[in-house]
Amino acid sequence: GQPHSEGIQLLLRRSREAKNCAYCPYSHFPVGAALLTAGGEIFSGCNVENACYSLGVCAERTAIQKAISEGHTSFRAMAITSDMGDNFIVPCGACRQVMREFGTDWNIYLTKADGTYIVKRLEDLLPLSFGPEDLKK
């Protein structure tokens, strides 16, 4: 099942806390993500930039890599937070594809700086996607 209201608020709070740890001296665009596993654990991540720009990593991928490194491969939801103001933060294409590796049937909470959010299914953010099962065709 999906997280209940209290669980959603915790996921959103953990993404805001992760955003505060972002290392973004070049873009000045902090992003935080919090990933809820099927087992109910939360892994958070922030973006980490590098002077060699292509070596930076997004918050969403940081959270996923942390979860994977701890043995989790089944996810229920992710909250993403930034300081974008009037716009909802959305994951980049690379993050959407990494998220897709672990299924399409989970919720993504996209937030604005004021804490309001909308919920999208991963399958809606990356329609007609390519995943592990396509390698077996």
Please describe the structure with a list of short key phrases separated by commas or semicolons.
single chain, 137 residues, alpha+beta, Cytidine Deaminase, domain 2, 4 helices, 5 strands, 28% helix, globular
Word description of this protein:
- By secondary structure, the protein is an alpha+beta fold.
- The chain has a single domain (3-123), classed as Cytidine Deaminase, domain 2 (3-Layer(aba) Sandwich), CATH 3.40.140.10.
- It is 28% helix and 22% strand.
- It contains four helices and five strands; from the N terminus they run H-E-E-H-E-H-E-E-H.
- The protein has helices at residues 5-19, 59-69, 93-100, 122-125, and strands at residues 31-37, 42-46, 75-82, 107-111, 117-121.
- It has a five-stranded mixed sheet.
- Helix 3 (93-100) links the parallel strand 3 and strand 4.
- The protein is globular.
- The termini are far apart.
- This is Cytidine deaminase.
- One of its GO terms (cellular component) is cytosol.
